[in-house]
Design brief:
By secondary structure, this protein is α/β, with parallel strands linked by helices. The structure holds pyridoxal-5'-phosphate.
Amino acid sequence: MQPANLSADRQAEIRRRISPAYDPAILVSAGSRLMELLGRHLESVQNREGPVLNWRPPAENLAAAGETLAAPAGPLAEIPDRFEELARLVLAHGQNLHHPRYVGHQVPASIPLAGLFDALGAISNQVMAVYEMGPFVTAVEKVLVEQLGMRIGWPAGTFAGFATHGGSLANLTALLTARNVALPRAWEQGLATAGNPVLVTGADSHYSIARAAGVLGLGTEQVVKAELDSRRRMDPVRLDTLLRRLRDDGRPVIAVAASCCATPIGAFDPLPEIAEVCRRWNVWLHVDAAHGGGALFSDRHRSLLVGIDQADSVVWDAHKMLFVPALCAFVFYRKAEHRFDAFRQSAPYLFDPAAPGGADFDLGLQTLECTKRAAALGLWGAWSVFGPGLFADLVDLTFDLTRKLHQLLTEQPDFTPLHEPQCNILAFRYLPVELAGAGPAEVGDFQLALRRQVIESGDFYLAPVKLDGVGALRVTLINPLTTLQDLHDLLNTLRRHGREVLHAVDILK
Ligand SMILES: Cc1ncc(COP(=O)(O)O)c(C=O)c1O
C-alpha cells in the first residue's frame, strides 16, 4: 500500500526543517571556519608539532564517532559551531600525512589546493557515468588521459583511458579487459569452457592483482608467480621459460602483470625484456605503475619506466606520486580499440546513442562505476595552477632523499638497508648489538614490535614489510617536507624505542 500524500502544511513543515541543510549562508560560514582551521592545522603539523599518528585503540574512536550521531540537532545559529567542533574531532584523531615525520605507506602529503578542487567537485556534486551529468569534469578527465598517455610515450589519438576509484579497481578493470580479449566469449559464457586460464605476475606484485584473479573467476590459485631476480624484479628469462611451459600445458594466459614498481621494496620490472617475451608468446602485457608512474614527469627518473609504451594496459595512481588526494587512479589501453572490451552492456535508461560524441564521452561505458565522483579534478587543478614541473620536483626531491637515507643507513653499524632504492621506497632493519646471534624470526618480530611502538608513540609513522618471510621496516618518503635531519632523527627514535622493546621481548630474557 502507498503512504497517504503529505498535506500542504506537513510539506511546508518538512521544507522548513531541511532548509538549513541547503542554506548557502551556512555553507559560507562553516566553510570559512574550515579553511581557518585547516590552515592552522597544516601549519602546526608541517612544523612537526604534535604526533604524526594520533593513535588510540579502535574502541575509543568508535565510541567518539558514534556519540556525535546520537547527539540531538542544535539550533540553527549553532550549526557553524557544531560543524567546527566535528571538524576538530576529525583532525584531532586522524593520521597526519603532512607531518614531515610521516614516512609510511604510499599515500602522500597531498597538495592542499588539489583537495580544494575535490571539494569543489564534491559540494557541487559533479559526477560522471554519462557526459551530460558532468560535462566539464568529463572533459577534465579526457584531457588528463591524453596528457598522461603521451607521457607514457603513445602518439596522441591512438590510445584510450579513464580515471577510476583507486589502483586496485584500476588493475581489476584492465585485467578484465585482458581476460575478455584473451577469451572473447568469457563475458557472456563465463569460464566453464575456457581451459583453465592463468594470470602471470611477479612474486612481489600488489595483492590487488591476485584479488582481480579471484574476482574475474580465474581463481587466486590460477595466479602463477613469475620468479624474481636478485633485486626482486621479474626475471624475463625465467618468464620466457614459464610462458613456454604454460603454452605446452595448453593453459591460456590472460596477461602478464608487471610492476613499476612493486610495493615491498619499490622494484621496477625490466619492461623492454618483458615486453619482448610477451610479444613472443602473444600475451597481453599489463603494467601496474600505480606508484612509479609519477616518475614519467621527471627527466632524472623517467628511464625507470623505459618500455612502458609497449604495455597493452597501464595503471597509474595520481594519488600516489602525483601527490593529489585519494582517490584518483587511471587505466590506459595502448590501443584505443580496447576501451569498450571490459564491459559489454547496454543500459537504455542511461546511455543515449543519439548524444553527440556518444560513447566516447559517456565514461560509464568503460568503468565499473556507474556514478563516479570527479576523481581527476584535483590533479587537473593542481596541474593548471602550478604546472607539470611541480610533479617532477616532487618525484626528484623524494627519490633523492631516499638515496640519502640509504647512504645514511649504510654508514650506521646498527642499521642494515636491505636493497638499493630505485625510487622513494626503502626497506631496512635495525640490528642493535643485543640482537647479535638472534635467528631470523626473532629479528623480524623485533622490527615489527619496534614499528608498532614507534607509530603508537606518534614520533614517526613508518610501515612494516616481510621479505622472504622475515619482518623489516619500510619507509616511503612521500612527503616533500621531510628532510635529512628528520631521517637522522628517525634512526635515533628507532634506537630509543628499540631499547624499550628489547627489554620487553623474550630474546633478552
Ligand atoms: C603497486 C601497487 N599497485 C596497486 C596498489 C593499490 O592501489 P590503491 O591503494 O589505489 O587501490 C598499490 C597500493 O599501494 C600499489 O603499491
